[in-house]
């Protein structure tokens, strides 16, 4: 893949609302994990409509980007599902179409693909590199055979470590790994040891999530019936602290509640979410939040892959600002909703939130009696720090982040 002629680089300090991320959802996977609440459709690679799905994403792209083409492109993220199952030439065809649509880009354009160790080898790595991917994120999740089985993963510890080695050998300068801690039977020491083992492979980014039980998942149903073994809150907190100290000792910065990075290797696409920047969602079940006229519009595409595949045959005059056959949800976002969600996401970051900038971006007022009370409450406990117009949660209180943020909502 080669960049289109006439590409211009946008300034890195462009205002956040003037840059754009693109998320492409690939819904197919080999198996749905019991904790997963994303749209994922178990499929063998040979049964996936590789070219037809690419055709549908490109058709959506051509119809959804009107008025957005001048925005500097900051990131493209292929998520799922399991994008490493997608034929690399078809993924590359979609990426080429996106880059052709957005010739104005930030100078450090990040192009990521989520991958599972069970579908990532030298051939897949080479194909993704040739397609234009410059960052991969591998779902390691655990390095213990029993925990991997409990989490429904198809790989074993050796395959996980081998996938990370393959990614590094393939020339990806930026490699990320996901880990899940707080699983029943796992000690804090074991959680820290797994984080250390993954960090020592040379990854530049690591996401470490406490196991979360979501309604509508297999784990959610088991938990509802009292049949899912769970770790106690104190044990989860100890694991969180031990993982943090282990990774920081290895040169990783804890820049978001669940994310760590070497210098300059922060996930730029996800930073866009946390900072409230717009993003274009493409694919079955994809969510997006984009500027339309003088407002922000949130939407979700149909979660039916079969229906989504019919997009190329649809008339080009579709109204994508209203619910219809290909759009399941459309929600104009009110100023206060934008500000509240900006706080919800931004307070997860070590950098926190500049509330004056949030007011200017959303048109909403930050301070009302409820938020003033939350401000006083958490500041008095040393959990909330205020530096000029910047609010941030003190890192020793990050385990309380959900409660603090709820007070501000």
Structure description:
It contains 14 helices and 18 strands. The chain is α/β, with parallel strands linked by helices. It has 2 domains: 8-274, TIM Barrel; 352-408, no CATH class. Strand 13 (287-292) and strand 14 form a beta hairpin. Residues 1-16 have low confidence and may be disordered.
Q: Which stretches of 5+ consecutive residues score pLDDT under 50?
A: 1-16
Secondary-structure-based class equals alpha/beta
CATH topology of the largest domain: TIM Barrel
* Number of helices in the DSSP assignment: 14
Largest sheet: 10 strands, mixed
CATH architecture assignment of the largest domain: Alpha-Beta Barrel
What do the pLDDT scores average to?
Answer: 91
Number of domains: 2
What's the count of strands?
18
> What top-tier CATH class of the largest domain fits best?
Alpha Beta
Distance between the termini: 44 Å
C-alpha-based Rg, rounded: 21 Å
Outline type: globular
Question: Key terms for this structure?
Answer:
23% strand; 18 strands; TIM Barrel; ten-stranded mixed β-sheet; disordered N terminus; globular; 409 residues; 2 domains; alpha/beta; single chain
